[in-house]
Amino acid sequence: MFAPRIRPRLPFMHRRPDDELKQTSDWISRAVRDEDFAILRFTLGIPGFDDDEIPRVVGFLCTSLVLFNHVDSVHPPEAQTRTELIAFLLALACSTAPSLGRRLTEATPHSVQLSKIEDEVFALSQTISDVAKADMAWATYALLTQTNAGGVLVIGNDEPRVLCARGHVQGAKGTANRSGSGENIICSLTSNIRDSELMEVAEKIYLSDRRSIDMAGANMWKFLPGGTESVFMQLGNGNLRVVLFSEQPRAFSKRQRNCVAAIANKLCPNSY
User: Number of structural domains, the chain?
Assistant: First the structure.
């Protein structure tokens, strides 16, 4: 008797969901685009030469060629003179492009990390009200995100004492996560502020680089983290001093300093 042939049952294969397949496809496409883009990113590879200076070199070469062409022409026509003038202006723009680019980069707020030996902290004095704590939390967050500051201090002017410290500050190593460490940091910074000459400054001070910091004697201020290259202090209408510091030279542009002054003026002395 003929027995029907039974096909063996194959194990059930789990099918990948469509959304997972789509996500994998997106990753592959993104990787291909990144690889294509990476191919276009190249450098000259000349030892000791910064590739950002290429426009300046091109500008100098073009200027030399334009001058040589002008001198070589006995009686250049008017059209040639106009063309040489335009070429000279374009070469001048190329020559100044690297300097302008660095200035724009310095004026653009970005994340700045001061020396890695300090920990980032956020400490508020327990002697101020909850309203003042909320105001200072908002103010210090705005300053750290809208400027190139790596750390911010808010100091009472009548009686020199630190009311708020946020970011990378000196003396925070190993104490950021301990119980009661916030008040310890406030006390330590207050002592350092009183030992410095910061409170003798009338309304504001801007030390734009390391040289100006050394000349002003600010390199002896113990509350500044190691590697500080710029310091700006603004006395607000509420008789509070706001101090910002950064590891970047010329970190605070005029626009950022005006922003600091506006925020400092909003901190009201009646709230603490």
Answer: 2
Do 249 and 212 belong to one domain?
yes
User: Of 148, 157, 185, 138, which Cα lies nearest the Cα of 241?
Assistant: 157
Q: At what angle do helices 54-72 and 78-107 cross, to 10 degrees?
A: 160
Both 59 and 90 in a single domain?
yes
Nearest-CA neighbor of 164 among 149, 173, 174, 154? Answer: 154
SS3 79: helix
Contact yes or no for 169/154 (Cβ under 8 A): no
Per residue in 109-164, pLDDT (tens digit) is 554 444 444 467 899 998 888 888 899 999 999 999 889 998 999 998 878 889 99
pLDDT tens per residue across span 68-114: 888 888 778 888 888 888 888 888 888 888 777 766 665 555 544 44
CB atoms within 10 A of CB 62: 17
Residues 90 and 94: their CA atoms lie apart, in Å, by 6
101 and 144 both lie in a single domain: no
| CA gap 175, 58 in Å, rounded | 53
Q: Tell me if 258 sits within 8 A of 240, measured CB to CB.
A: no
Last residue of a domain, one of 67, 84, 107: 107
Q: Residue 72 to residues 63, 78, 94, 235: CA-CA distances in angstroms?
A: 14, 15, 24, 62
pTM, rounded to two decimals: 0.58
- Report the DSSP pairing between strands 151-156 and 204-207: unpaired
Please tell me whether residues 160 and 243 are part of one structural domain: yes
Assess if residue 203 is contained within a domain: yes
